[in-house]
Specification:
Layout (H helix, E strand, L loop, with lengths): L13 E5 L5 E12 L2 E6 L5 H5 L5 E3 L15 H4 L3 E4 L2 E10 L7 E6 L2 E6 L5 E5 L4 E4 L14 H23 L2
């Protein structure tokens, strides 16, 4: 669970659960505690580990008007998803999701057609964010997006030649043993 406000579970007793199939349920929180840097929630009606496993994959949500006020430069995931993202060269695409765990800053998964770009949502790259207008403007290091783009025909040929040479060298080494 991603939350910057674990202490709010002391007062919040009801959460919404969004399942992968789109169905929603209301979950009553009986108690919460902290364990190894995570918040553990005891949900009414889920009294064993096997009961709790039924909650696997459920996205916990709160109503928008119950959200805590954020400090400048931070945003809720739901406010980022769907935003158009531009940089100094124009439109990159639209935020499809936000991923955590790849570093200090969350990664914006930005899609434009079939292309997908991973861009850190970091202060160093953020120029402006007008979440009400669903727009994010970034100043990205030169070449960051090109590293993630599709290979040119020359790059594909070069990679194939390198792979063939590596394979042949391996076969020669095995033949000499």
């Amino acid at each position: 669970m991603h939350t910057s406000f674990p202490e709010r579970f002391a007062e919040r007793r009801e959460l919404l659960g969004l399942a992968a199939d789109g169905s929603r349920s209301v979950l009553q929180i009986e108690e919460h505690w902290f364990h190894k840097g995570h918040v553990i929630l005891k949900v009414t009606g889920f009294d064993s580990i096997s009961d709790a496993e039924r909650l696997t994959g459920i996205e916990l949500q709160i109503l928008e008007d119950e959200r805590a006020q954020l400090e400048a430069g931070t945003a809720y995931i739901s406010d980022l998803e769907g935003c158009s993202v531009t940089d100094q060269n124009g439109l990159i695409g639209t935020v499809a999701e936000v991923r955590f765990g790849a570093g200090e800053a969350p990664l914006l998964v930005i899609r434009r057609g079939e292309q997908e770009f991973l861009v850190p949502y970091a202060k160093a790259f953020l120029k402006t964010a007008d979440l009400a207008k669903r727009r994010i403007e970034m100043e990205l290091p030169e070449g960051l997006l090109e590293l993630q783009g599709p290979l040119s025909e020359d790059e594909r040929r070069r990679q194939k030649l390198e792979a063939d040479e590596t394979r042949k060298a391996g076969e020669r080494r095995r033949g000499h043993k």
